What does this fold into?
Amino acid sequence: MRFPRLRLPLAVVLATGALAAHGGVDAVRQELAARIEAQLQAAGAQAAATPPESAVTTPAAAAAGPTPMEAGKALWGRKFKDGRTLASCYPNGGRRVAASYPLYDSRLKRVVTLEMSINQCLKIHHEPLLEATDPPTMGALTAYLRSLADGRKVAVRVPAAAESHFEQGRRLYFTRFGQRNYACASCHVQNAGRIYADQALSGAVGQATRWPFLHANQALTLQAQIRDCLDRMGAAPFGAGSNEMNDLEYFLTYLSLGLPLKPNTPR
Amino acid sequence: MRPHFAIVAAAGVAFAPAVLAQKDQGLELFIRPDKGYCIACHQVPVQAGPATRSNVGPALAGPRMRELGSAALHELLRDPTRANPDTIMPPFGKHLLLDEREIDRLTEYLLALP
It folds into this structure.
């Protein structure tokens, strides 16, 4: 060594520095861990303190505005310029029809979702169309319309002509994409029931029976939820009402065939 | 001698916050939703990070990390599908979720787990 007398002080200083650093790291790590844990507990406590069903019925929530069901019922009963209402476009005034959607329209040669059927009705009556995932309008309308089929069993049919759409939906469900390289099935089939980010992953079967989901007094359609999921996967979400999204919903709903509708699930 | 000692002492003092910052970054990358977000799937020993119930991936422990070694761990974080095409672990480096330096920080954090 060029400076033999420097050897000991050098070792002492480096060791002291490293020890100090190590102690500091532990302190920071513990502090950070405690802070994150406190945040997680606070979030958990907040979630636990929120009564699931009453989120849309408590006076506080009502004071913030009409519930999605109330808003949806009002929109449903609103008269068009020609004096008709949305109910005029559906058999039984809309009762028990939601369980049959999405359905394949052989004339359009595409899958028609409940939201699309609402917009078709509006178009026929020369009314302005609604954005497919807009919570205050389309979300609220689906909340009401699907509540008219509460308990009805999912009755989606896949005729031979619609098999390519069903297959496209199945393919999309199992295809991995996005920056995180997940498929829908990665979480909701392969890891259903496991805990991700401190929440149990729901299974694919039954997922399509529970929408719209109620969150912060807003109704989120299934496609809004899928888009949110895709966004979190680091994937550019398919457009709401696009063929890809409709086919995905078609496949996902078919997985719940025969299960009773239980819409307006709190989230 | 004295000037040299002062330089080395100063280096030692400067070294401490630098190491601290690096380790801190590793934990931050481990828990940030827009970065690794490893905490969503994996648990770590209580004193090493927030306690969760995550169980999509295996619980991580220092001995297993050190058994894998730095190079293998780095490669696993960069693209786990090379070792196991069926894994659902994101290819953090290949898909640019983390850059090389961030993977280094995360590797250091994992190797230092108790």
About this structure: Chain B touches chain A through 41 residues (CB under 8 Å). DSSP finds four helices and no strands in chain B.
